[in-house]
Amino acid sequence: MKRKTKVSSLNFKVSSFLKKNHVQAQNDFLQDYLPWRTEYLSVLLDLEQLVNNGKCNDCGEGEGLIRCLSCSGTRAWCPSCVLKAHQHNPFHNLQLWNGRFYETTTLQAQGYIMYLGHGGEPCPNLSHQPDPSPWEDLGSMEDVFAQEEGDTINDMQLGVSNLVIVHSTGVYSHSVSWCQCPGAEKAHHLNLMKARLFPASLTRPRSAFTFDVLDNFLIDALECKTSAMSFYQKLRRFTNNAFPDKIPDQYRELMRVSRIWRDLVNRKRFGFGHDTERSPGPGDLALYCPACPQPGINLPTSWRYDYEEWLVMRRYVVDGNFTAQHMKMKIPEDDVSLADGKGYMVTEGPYQAHIHDSVEEREASSSRLIIFLKKSTCSNHQAVNATNIQRSNLRATGVGAIACTRHGCFVPHAVVDFQKGERHMNMDYSICNAVKYTPEPIGSTLIIYDVACQWSIHFAEWVDQSYHLSLPEGTKILPAPGILMGKYWRPSGLLSTRFPLLQDPFKSLLKKYRHALQGISDTQGPYEELTRSLDLDDVQEWKKAAEKAAQDRGELLDIYQLKMDKAPSMAEIRLRLTENELSANGRTGSVAWLIEGINIENSQDALRLSIRQLPQDPTASQRTGIEEKRQKLMAWIIKFHEAAEVMTNGMDLKGGEGAPLDNPELCLEEADISNMEDPEEEDILDFDGNIDSPAEVTEIWMPSWAASGHIMDDVVLALHQEELELRKGQANDCLEKLRQALGDRSVVFWEKIHSNKSVHHQGTRSKKELQTITLSINRHARGYSRARAAMLRLGADSDTVAVYQPLKPQDLVVSKEVTEENRHGQGSDKLAWFWRINNTEDSQKNLWMNEFYRVNWLKAKARYDRWSEELKLVQHEMFWTISWFRTQEERWRVWADESIKNGNRAYAERQASMWAEFSAQGLKNFEGKLLITS
């Protein structure tokens, strides 16, 4: 009920805001539409009637039975006028009035002829003007498309043939009059190109694609992830929605022509139509990140002196994708590559030579390049362990790629195919190509890889031993484990060319800039406040240690981890007490007896949990199961009490208060809290009714259960001290298991629940696993609470009580300080007290607090320093981005000045203008933010 009230209140506030600001919501527009729905429907039906009473709007004499759905307005034409109006609009959709309704017709059926070779005008060398009359009896689309591929309807001696043309608004058939100039019969495909039509064949073109439809296909594939089959099916339905199968199938032609078109467009955009003396080299037909430092492109010539090394360090993320598979070809030697190694994929020949020479062996060898086939020891990483998987029908089982870590742009000429899993020899080749991509080497390269711990062990050795692997001189590889690349893959598994920085080069950097400012604001205050509260000598010592760790790295980075000794477990305390028990109380077995009592308490807790998990109306089988557990537990308790009389020399240890109630806040997700007010009410499950209290709430005769003020002899006092020590061990064990369970819950929540955002994917298994861990947390929390209560009843001293604090519900949330140490925004985090529990010895108490402050100060400083560095780096990236755009502009300005052909000059000027607009927009967006290096 409360939740519904909150939702209603929120909706009211949103509605009030929209009305106050005169903003219409979607539902408001729909409400406006409803009164007009009938009128709109009437207008749509009126548009189906004969236009202008069947009179031609142009000449006013002929029968105006033809209308055009593509032209603006509603006009009626006669056949001759419609041809004049559409002489240069061959891809409009016409309809013809048949006396009852409008049906689809074509320009070809009305006698339209498309002239090629002379700017749309008839060739002057035509012997006579083609007669359109042969086409007048072809009134339906079915007749037009009935011709087989390669057939012609008209005589070739007239220079007219039938041509199927695919446009973005549908599939058309046109009568084409070819140029009759001498030698023109061999240039038909060039005449089509000049008419902005791409021929499906270069020798005898029978179909063609407009440049517009090819551009549309590339955009659809990029933005809508449309396949070629789906795209062409859309065009067929545009042409004939009722019977799309009657439209000729040009799918294979679309696949072929789109590849050629993409190749031509790429070469045009990258200037290889202007720089004809140079052929594209590796990666020259692909864009790289404008914001990443690139010597000779967006860095000044003095960059080695202007920038600190960490600023210009390359940062790459490495990953593989196993959904981008490639089937084996029947005749692979016939495959024609249009851009082998010119884009993001590596050159095939050298890569295959590297794979061939990288010998696979099961045993280590110091003289050859080895790729181990043993399972990875890195968290059983599936991608590496898939090395031995054979897929005989696949040419490539996936791809591996490298992208810049900060902006998600893939590195050109660094994407490799996998043959059978993600092997090191595949990624070695990719990484080496990525490091060598920049024109001038940069010293350090950070490689973030999910199996970096395994990959980096022999990487340098493999590079030295391989003829195909190399790195620029002086390159330093810094491996780091991590997974950041999943969002850069398309859902289909292919590389996504929609890099955030290239979609909107300014929005991405401005967002990073705002985050950096917010990060500094969040971390500066806690860091400075903590520094002022600490001893200056300690701060100076810690600061020197942090500087040395940042410089030398390696194991020195362990200064950011808590250095604490693990508190003694109950097993360790039991061993120590057992070794000394004979000298302490003259009896043996007392420690085992006390341990048995603690175990009985745990069993009582488990039975109470089982009862809480029963439904409101338990079945007979469920009731019987509970009763059997009670009887077994009661028999155990009776046997324990018999032993108690021996251990205590017959002294009575009864407390008379019964077992304490479980804290409802430590029983969450187990049962309704209202059913736990009085455990004694659960006696309804006690069938016999002859037991004073159920086994799960029966008090256990141990020193900690004895009534206060109870007179004890030396034997009981010794037992008293032994139980106190065991209770400390019990508390330590429970806290250790509690920390582990909280960490497990964090992992399960983020990996299983939080990552699956849709309700459909939040499966029962994930929720069950999370619930199981929650029950474990509750169980350990109750165990600790029992141990602490026993210690208080046993008279624990103040130091012990100070260490073992009460558990609160807010303490049982996941501690991100421990489970997510490397996340952003840790400036105001605090560790729950039990994460820093240490030995209870008083001599170590101050040492622990000093250690705790040291780690927290180092982390606070690191957070503030990292955000300060992030701000500085983003400001430089803004300058590098503008410099990258200016370099592109200058390159096209040079080509424009050097161009002899008018078309080349015009295109170069247009490209230069586009890059200049990017630069100007960048200066406007980054004003007052970027750091300029001259």
Overview of the structural elements:
It is elongated, with a radius of gyration of 40 Å. The model is unreliable at 1-7, 132-141, 146-157, 361-374, 490-500, 672-691, 757-762 and 838-845 (pLDDT under 50). It has 934 residues and is of the alpha/beta class.
- Low-confidence spans: 1-7, 132-141, 146-157, 361-374, 490-500, 672-691, 757-762, 838-845
Query: What is the distance, rounded to the nearest whole angstrom, between the alpha carbons of the first and last residues?
Result: 64 Å
What structural class do you assign from the helix and strand content?
Answer: alpha/beta
Number of helices: 28
Overall body shape: elongated
> Whole-number average pLDDT?
78
Q: Portion of residues in helices?
A: 40-55%
User: DSSP strand (E) fraction?
Assistant: 5-15%
Rg, Cα atoms, Å:
40 Å
Task: Work out the number of β strands.
Answer: 15
Give the strand order, joined by hyphens, for the main sheet.
Answer: 4-6-5-8-7
Summarize the main sheet.
Answer: 5 strands, mixed
For this entry, give a set of tags.
alpha/beta, 5-stranded mixed sheet, 8% strand, 934 residues
Summarize the structure.
This protein has 934 residues and is of the alpha/beta class. Residues 1-7, 132-141, 146-157, 361-374, 490-500, 672-691, 757-762 and 838-845 have low confidence and may be disordered.
Ordered list of secondary-structure elements with their pairings:
Elements: H1 2-20, H2 26-33, H3 37-46, E1 66-68, H4 79-85, E2 94-97, E3 102-105, E4 113-115, H5 141-144, E5 160-167, E6 170-177, H6 188-194, E7 197-199, E8 207-210, H7 211-223, H8 228-239, H9 251-269, H10 303-306, H11 309-312, E9 314-321, E10 326-327, H12 348-357, H13 382-385, E11 394-396, E12 398-404, E13 416-418, H14 424-435, E14 444-449, H15 452-455, H16 459-465, E15 476-480, H17 500-503, H18 507-532, H19 536-552, H20 570-585, H21 590-612, H22 620-647, H23 714-754, H24 764-793, H25 798-803, H26 816-819, H27 845-898, H28 902-925
Parallel strand pairs: 4-6, 5-8, 9-14, 14-15
Antiparallel strand pairs: 1-2, 2-3, 5-6, 7-8, 9-12, 10-11, 12-13
